Amino acid sequence: MSEQENNVSPIKRALRAIEDLQAKVNQLEYAKREPIAIIGMGCRFPGADNPEAFWQLLRNGVDAITEVPADRWDLEKFYDPDPDAPGKVCTRKGGFLTQVDGFNPEFFGISAREAASIDPQQRLLLEVGWEALENATLASEHLYNSSTGVFIGIYLNDYSKVMSSVGDSTQIDAFSAIGNSLSVAAGRLSYILGLKGPSMAIDTSCSSSLVSVHLACQSLRLGECNLALAGGVGLNLVPDTSIALSKSHMLNPNGRCQTFDAAANGFVKGEGCGVVVLKRLKDALADGDNILALIRGSAVNHNGRSSSLIAPNGMSQQATIRQALENSGVDSAQIDYVEVQGTGTSVGEPIEVAALGAIFGKNRPQDQPLVIGSVKTNIGHLEPASGIASLIKVVLALQHGEIPPHLHFQHPNPNIKWDEFRLKVPTERMPWTVGAKSRLAGVNTFGFSGTNAHLILEEAPSDFRLPILDFKLGDSGQNIPKSKIQNPKYIERPLHLLALSAKTDEALIQLAERYEKHLAANPDLALGDICFSANSGRSHFQHRLSVVASSSAELYEKLAAFRAGQEVAGLFKGKVAGSPKIAFIFTGLSYQHLGMGRKLYETQPTFRAALDHCDQILRPYLEQPLLETIFSQSPPASPALFCLEYALFQLWKSWGIQPTTVMGNDVGEFVAACVAGVFSLEDALKLVASQVDEFKQIAREVTYSQPQIPVVSHLTGEIATPEYWCEQVRKPVNAASVNIIAQQGYEIFVEIGSDRLSKNEKVSLPSLHPEKEDWQQLLESLGTLYVHGAKVDWLAFDLDYPRQRLQLPTYPWQRKRHWFGANRNGQKKVESVSPNKSLNNADFKQLVKQLEMTAELSQAELNLLPRLLELLEKQHQQTKTEEETNITLQQLSLKSLTREDIQAWLVNQIAQELGVKPDEINIRLPFDSYGLDSVLAIAIASTGKQFLGLDMSPLLLVHYPTIESLSQHLAKEVEASESETFEI
């Protein structure tokens, strides 16, 4: 204990200890109740494929209910208006999605064969989960191996019934069980994205998805995860559940949810998927996330032993609501709106509204009624996804400051005490005005499992831009006149770069079109925010597009021209084959231009900081400070050019662009050596600032080190010696050095300066150009690097500027039909109809006679029989020949198998296992890029043993991850086995 502490009285020390303990208690209490930020959403609901479309549906009062589509079940066969009719459904209506048989498995690394065995609910969840992350501007690679949790409400299992109805057990494969396990719905999303937080499927019937959100919030507050995806999914593929609900008189025969109406007579089924991305509020604020709304608190309970298992319990619902309010620290009178379960059943609805009235009706001013509504009147009852649909509706209403209309409400239900509970149902769009206080809402749900859930939502805080680096003249750039800087605290660059990518060229074109339409619909969005959100908030694939623009209008015009197939200046497109080898070429004094780098100094803090640092080092060696002459001399002196190139290097480096080799011309070689670590910046500047007569002495005083980046030098000898540099200042440039780099396989030359030194067939990218503005040339070169596969640190690219994350268009899925009962190429499975033995003449006559007796064939059809039977016989003989050939091949010596034979076999076998055509297989791509997993690896290894006569472990596909490398290995194994056989 210090002397000062000894002088403090025991009472004061005790008081301090109490204060410290109280602070810790307060922290723990806050952690238990910390608001959870909703930072992203994705949805696929009837009539709406994304949150923006969903809001338009809601605010326009659209009823998305339709007749049962023909691809679900035979409506005429199963429909009967009598709910008690055996095996029938009492309604023709429902809320349905389109194209539920379509999927883009290649995007997720899933094979076509596996895709057909995966429940469409799981496939839909993958798409919507990805869209929710893009909506939150979170690139998936940034989440890999993170403690991100996945909580999904799901309980329908219709696809397994679809598979059973096919009646062909031979089509059941190793993927069928996994693909139809409800637990795998959450697990597959975690697996695909590489997420290591809690992952679980939740089934509490109709409250499943809201319970999932509650559990996700709890997990975040407990620190089990730092990010969470929560939601629900449900699809109605067969009529079984609808038949059961008809028998329970829960379905409304008129096919509508008439919530709160006197004519309410049950609900109509719907389907869909919704996912929200959640983060603790303090983390969301620190990360500059786009906060859509806050979850202040939530609660879950069960009815216990009530009147029946499936009947709602008003007292239990009241208890849930009270607990949610307590957990939120919110008074019931502060709640403006409640999104109710509102299934429209004669039993449940009055009970739910009475529970709401008992809590929210008290202490409520007469002129501030509680507004209630239900999204089920728009899209039906989505069962496991109903709670998340309600939550997303409320979030959208909070964002837009408007409560959308509640449909099908004409005559209030007389069993509800409207005046006593001070309730209001909005039958048209209603402004959500609250004055100075925040908008607050509740979301209520319950299920026939007896589980109730309630959430309290609050509108987002008003300002949550990314933290920025303040620009102040006193900190740096003090020699730039104030007139050059319009805003001394915040300076924006004049141009921006948009980077888009996709997994196919078609998807890239569609993505560009989506951005074009988004720009047209939202012309006031800040271009810097658009580019930042797209560049840093999306994964980057091999098909790439980059566009340089100064305004949203210019970006729109360039995207439109690209889609029209026109040549566009400042737009670059390419397909990435791998990580490019990049060489940095530091140019010399020739061809430099007046004012080079001035605009960068005025608008780019990293570049400015590097120049300022050089200026401070050089002051003892220069008559005039560097910053007074650097932009006014032409050509610049050696120290000025060194500093410009050094600052450019630091800028490229801050953006993640780093060379694998460097080279320089005259003074540029000093920069190259400096950045490679041959000598320090201080020593390098002393060298370039010295005169020739003193250079040798200074060179001997410098501390040299071996380069950390390979340096291609112009001279022979050791570069980390004073002798090399004394020789360097006397000898001219050896232009052959550039050609040496090109011969070493370097594909891209980034010129640090503006001297076009690298005259070769490779990609040559100057940092600056005498005929272009600084930012124009720099961003064109960065855009070209991007489309050639360079990995850009997009967060760092915009680190020096204030940015806000925006919700932008999501990935355009390239869906194809993948359904059980279709073969691997998407066609119906055709069983062999070849006879087991050849037909002789007597057999033929007997067959024709039997067909004539059926009287089901016309004479013209009978006349075709000889030709048809001839073709069948030919097919039988061909099949027999192939089987005999296969036997013969197996009996042949393995000596006849070449690497090309093995490679061809692998291509055909893998294509067959994956359900694709052989010409779609690239022998140089890794197996996992096709969606080849352990199950398929085992199958290929098994058939390989039969074909090659070798013990082939599935692990070989890990050690030799391409067809090319595996076939080479197997060819050597075959050759070795032949040698052993010969020796025996």
Any chance you could write out the topology, listing elements then pairs?
Layout: H1 3-6, H2 10-33, E1 36-44, H3 51-59, E2 66-67, H4 75-78, E3 93-94, E4 102-103, H5 112-115, H6 120-135, E5 148-153, H7 158-166, H8 174-179, H9 183-193, E6 199-202, H10 208-222, E7 227-234, H11 240-247, E8 272-280, H12 281-286, E9 293-302, H13 314-328, E10 337-339, H14 348-360, E11 370-373, H15 376-379, H16 386-400, E12 402-403, H17 418-421, E13 423-424, E14 430-431, E15 440-446, E16 451-459, E17 496-502, H18 505-521, H19 527-536, E18 543-549, H20 552-563, E19 571-575, E20 582-586, H21 598-603, H22 605-618, H23 626-629, H24 638-654, E21 661-664, H25 667-676, H26 681-689, H27 692-701, H28 722-728, H29 736-743, E22 748-752, E23 763-766, H30 774-787, H31 794-797, E24 816-817, H32 841-854, H33 859-891, H34 899-914, H35 934-948, H36 956-959, H37 963-983
Parallel strand pairs: 5-6, 5-7, 10-11, 10-15, 11-13, 20-21, 20-22, 22-23
Antiparallel strand pairs: 1-8, 1-9, 2-3, 4-24, 7-8, 9-16, 12-14, 15-16, 17-18, 18-19
